[in-house]
Amino acid sequence: MQWKAALFDLDGVVFDTEPQYTVFWGEICRQYHPEIPGLENRIKGQTLTQIFDAYFADNEAARRDVVSRLDQYEAGMSYDYIRGFVDFIQNLRSHGVATALVTSSNHAKMASVYRSRPELPRLFDIVLTSEDFSESKPSPDCYLKAAERFGAQRQQCIVFEDSFNGLRSGKSAGMAVVGLTTSNSRESISDLCDVAVSDFSEIVFDDCLEVLARHHAPCDD
Q: Helix 85-94 crosses helix 205-215 at what angle (to 10 degrees)?
């Protein structure tokens, strides 16, 4: 059996940024929607467009304010790798597995990421951002397009995700899914993934593929 491609979300999978976003969105939600306690937790994993459509549709001034503050916030964020990520992805590539970053982040956000982590593009064969997709997660569009770029069948791809929408996207694409518990509890994501881990230090390459193969056998070619 041969796995051809590993497809990674960004926040909460490559980088340990979710706690920082929780702080940012906590401030925004308390300012604009104090009537919905804990809203910052409900919107985890949603795109900015999805958040705006659901909670800021009739407030253009608020949308402009959020975009400006978010751009400034992301420019100063810390982009620390999830534990074990770099070693794991290098191991994947040494085994001939193609790698893709598949993120709902836009070009502006990625510019901030690259300033902090200029080595990041070298860890991936391709990088796909929100500008490359017509539909946001939980649609499978982004992961299907990544597989297409590699000429891989969906059964030959492994998705690494943390958010509910991202996990559903990988599952809807018909791919094997590894769920990281960086944003949500193991219990809450267990039905949306084949394997759940707290970080990449828990994954031994051969063991990971063996477990996934039992749940989701890939093609031989």
A: 70
* Buried b or exposed e, range 106-125, using 16+ CB within 10 angstroms: eeebbebbeeeeeebeebbb
Per-position pLDDT tens, the chain of length 221: 578 999 999 999 999 999 999 999 999 999 999 999 999 988 988 889 899 999 999 999 999 999 999 999 999 999 999 999 999 999 999 989 999 999 999 999 999 999 999 999 999 999 999 999 989 899 999 999 999 999 999 999 999 999 999 999 999 999 999 999 999 999 999 999 999 999 999 886 665 666 566 655 544 44
Strand 195-197 and strand 157-161: pairing?
A: unpaired
Which token pair is 133?
Answer: 């997709």
- The pTM of the full predicted model, rounded to 2 decimals, is 0.90
Helices (H), the chain: 18-32, 39-42, 48-55, 60-75, 85-94, 107-116, 141-150, 164-172, 186-189, 205-215
Distance, in Å, from the CA atom of 52 to the CA atom of 96, rounded to the nearest integer, reads 40
How many Å apart are CA 77 and CA 36, to the nearest integer?
Answer: 26
